[in-house]
Here is the input.
Amino acid sequence: MVFSQKLFLSINQEISQLNVNLQKMAQANHPILYAAAKHLFKTGGKRIRPSIIFIIAKVTTNDNIIRPEHKRLAEITEIIHTASLMHDDVIDDCDTRRGLNTVHNVFNTKIAILAGDFLFAQSSWYLANLNNLEVVKVISKVITDFAEGEVRQGLTNFDTFISIEDYIEKSFYKTATLIACSCKATAMLSKTPLNIQNDFYLYGKHLGLAFQIIDDILDITSKEDKLGKPSGSDLKNGNLTAPLIFALEEKPEILRFINQEFQNKDDIKKAINIIKKTKGIQKAKDLAEEHIQLAIHIIKSKFTCNDTYILLLISDYILKRFN
Here is the structure.
């Protein structure tokens, strides 16, 4: 991918080693569990989260060196992310992910849930072995937040009264918390002052929210071959996202499809066509840009070095995924 090749040239070696280590960390005694656990690691993904950790590590250390504990944190973060995807795919009954059949499709639902649980357990074990209680507290909260986010999403499925504020809060629990907490934990491992740790937490939070909003736009605007999973999945599962919430203000006729839970074959396609005729997608993109600007402001106003520039480029990349 051009993104990782050009933007992250300075950490290519660390990303390559991370990919090797993830395979080792997914090892389980039972061959089926091992096969299921490493299934999602096959395609690699974008590795955005570990890449951000590596860059922040360089920004926050005097010698610009990524230390072993930073590398381990990056691996833990990616394992937690992958475990959450396995569970998400079961909950959403998603057939494909990153262009591959999902774990529960290849094996079965029980194996997928157990594999996700196994990866969460592995991440906790490696996290404990960092021997840094404060970092353990910060990252452990992520797993609690994931569960909170899933419950909130489940309780608001097909709920047409959901507000943008509700949506942002849910997006924090489901996506932004991992990026925010891992950014803060990176600064903690670099032994930076508390105010610096909190700055990186806010940077990660706003970056994560923007990432989720753009993801939700792409669910409506992109084709399945580009997404790596079926488009319109959010609508199908009753997960009302920013583009749809904004579109409802202009086109309340979409309510009919939501209230019927898209029961007819072409309902999702019809709803997407209506959304595209509104300002919903543009308003959602504007909302993502607001969060990107907040993230950029934190970095620009307080940190200046070559690697800081890469953090700004990451923000730009997240917005350009929309185009």
Remarks:
- The first strand starts at residue 96 and ends at 97.
